[in-house]
């Protein structure tokens, strides 16, 4: 079992020593940012990018340079999508207030959102961020089961509240983990070769964690997982890969929280939600970033019986969660995904991307694996294909080379050796060869 060292935040980050190489203007901006915002904030790249506008899957910096954005799922339907901009503008022109008044649009959107999910998921609580949604989910799950212990994967990142950080093993180098947390390795489809073997290993690890919880008396609350294992290295696997593990959790009285902040809202192409790829009906679903295309809105969706012990025991109030303007943004996102056929588009573009990247791997032996579903692709760089040893230094160097070629992305996985290719759903067919050419040139420049 491995644990992380805050790699999700520190992998592709600017270091103070890099400031000396910047031009006067950007060095002054960096110094001002560090002085005013403090040292905890991170920037991408040795040469940070100052983005000032975007459209679709493209963004422009302050000097007018255009970039292909292969990283941002926050503007899920595309940067500055006109439908979202118009919806927010129209509602802001009418009213925005807190959530203790009746508002029909909030209920209409709640109905629409749950209509995309299995019928058992009936009730919605709106918040502002994925961190808040996961915080609420952990509390609801504990209230329902009476257990304290959650199971999470070894590089999982579920958010930044005190409770959620303590259940995000990728932060374990900087944050104290909850004493009851059990950490398991993800289903590594690259090193286990097949989804079947990876799924079996994952189920065995979950079974061992449950047994340890039961011996300790901590009480099982459940499993919280992103079904694409995004921070762990992107292991989408074959359909149904993690179903046995979730069945084990249910058999022992725990709940399954599907963290859909990254794989949700048509990202995987095959289904609207990542968990649907595995034939699962979660007890709780959480979502965030892509829900409002950058406008802060998130939600926790739960089975009625799971939410009831929490909701009857205490009132819950989130001042801005699900306010009318946020709901307008969220409704526009749902409408756009359907109206523009973005789920089918994600499937088509993702398959084209991975096919092209696998072809590229023939010329570059340091590309160890290309994996994913829909517009969620992981490209793992290795020292050697026989040993499959991760090559962190190469991956970070490739990021810098791609940045110079105006292609933006980042890394994930325990060694930061996996390129995390997660563009807005608006990416076009013309963008795929641009990625491949930039990656080809980057690897060639690095002698890889």
Describe the protein in words.
The chain is α/β, with parallel strands linked by helices. The protein folds into 2 domains: 36-45 and 57-79 and 341-445, Alpha-Beta Complex (Aspartate Aminotransferase, domain 1); 82-339, Aspartate Aminotransferase, domain 2, CATH 3.40.640.10. The chain has 13 helices and 16 strands. It has helices at 7-10, 24-37, 82-94, 104-114, 130-145, 162-165, 195-216, 243-251, 304-313, 324-339, 342-361, 392-404, 431-445; strands at residues 51-55, 58-61, 66-69, 121-127, 149-153, 182-184, 220-225, 255-259, 284-287, 298-303, 367-372, 377-384, 389-390, 407-408, 410-412, 418-421. The strands form 3 sheets. A 7-stranded mixed beta sheet has the order 4-10-9-8-7-5-6, with helices on both faces. Strand 1 (51-55) and strand 2 (58-61) form a beta hairpin.
Supply the number of structural domains: 2
Sheet/helix structural class: alpha/beta
Distance between the termini: 30 Å
For the biggest β-sheet, the strand order reads 4-10-9-8-7-5-6
Identify the CATH class of the largest domain: Alpha Beta
Family: Belongs to the class-III pyridoxal-phosphate-dependent aminotransferase family.
Pfam families: Aminotran_3
Protein name: Aspartate aminotransferase family protein
Organism: Microbacterium betulae
């Amino acid at each position: 079992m491995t644990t992380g060292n805050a790699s999700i935040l520190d992998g592709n980050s600017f270091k103070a020593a890099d400031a000396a190489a910047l031009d006067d203007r950007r060095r002054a901006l960096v110094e001002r940012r560090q002085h005013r915002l403090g040292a905890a904030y991170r920037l991408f790249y040795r040469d940070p990018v100052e983005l000032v506008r975007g459209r679709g899957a493209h963004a422009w910096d302050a000097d007018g340079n255009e970039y292909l954005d292969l990283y941002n799922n926050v503007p899920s339907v595309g940067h500055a999508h006109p439908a979202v901009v118009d919806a927010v503008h129209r509602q802001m022109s009418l009213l925005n207030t807190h959530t203790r008044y009746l508002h029909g649009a909030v209920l209409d959107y709640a109905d629409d959102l749950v209509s995309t999910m299995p019928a058992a998921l009936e009730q919605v609580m709106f918040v502002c961020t994925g961190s808040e949604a996961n915080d609420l989910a952990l509390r609801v799950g504990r209230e329902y089961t009476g257990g304290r212990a959650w199971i999470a994967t070894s590089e999982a990142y579920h958010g930044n509240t005190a409770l959620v950080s303590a259940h995000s093993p990728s932060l374990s180098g900087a944050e104290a983990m909850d004493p009851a947390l059990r950490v398991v390795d993800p289903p590594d489809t690259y090193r286990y070769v097949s989804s079947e073997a990876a799924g079996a290993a994952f189920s065995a690890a979950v079974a061992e964690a449950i047994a340890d919880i039961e011996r300790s008396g901590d009480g099982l609350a459940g499993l919280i997982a992103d079904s694409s294992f995004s921070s762990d290295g992107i292991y989408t696997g074959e359909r149904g890969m993690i179903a046995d593990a979730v069945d084990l959790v249910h058999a022992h009285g725990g709940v399954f929280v599907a963290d859909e902040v990254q794989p949700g809202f048509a990202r995987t192409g095959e289904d609207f939600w990542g968990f649907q790829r595995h034939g699962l009906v979660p007890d709780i679903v959480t979502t965030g970033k892509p829900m409002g295309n950058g406008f802060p809105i998130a939600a926790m969706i739960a089975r009625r019986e799971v939410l009831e012990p929490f909701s009857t025991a205490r009132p819950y109030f989130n001042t801005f969660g699900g306010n009318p303007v946020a709901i307008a943004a969220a409704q526009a996102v749902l409408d756009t995904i359907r109206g523009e056929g973005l789920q089918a588009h994600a499937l088509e573009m993702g398959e084209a991307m991975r096919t092209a990247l696998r072809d590229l791997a023939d010329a570059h032996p340091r590309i160890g694996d290309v994996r994913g579903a829909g517009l969620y692709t992981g490209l793992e760089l290795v020292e050697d294909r026989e040993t499959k040893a991760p090559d962190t230094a190469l991956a970070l160097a490739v990021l810098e080379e791609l940045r110079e070629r105006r292609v933006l992305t980042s890394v994930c996985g325990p060694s930061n050796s996996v390129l995390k290719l997660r563009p807005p759903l608006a990416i076009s067919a013309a963008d795929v060869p641009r990625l491949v050419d930039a990656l080809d040139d980057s690897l060639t420049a690095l002698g890889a």
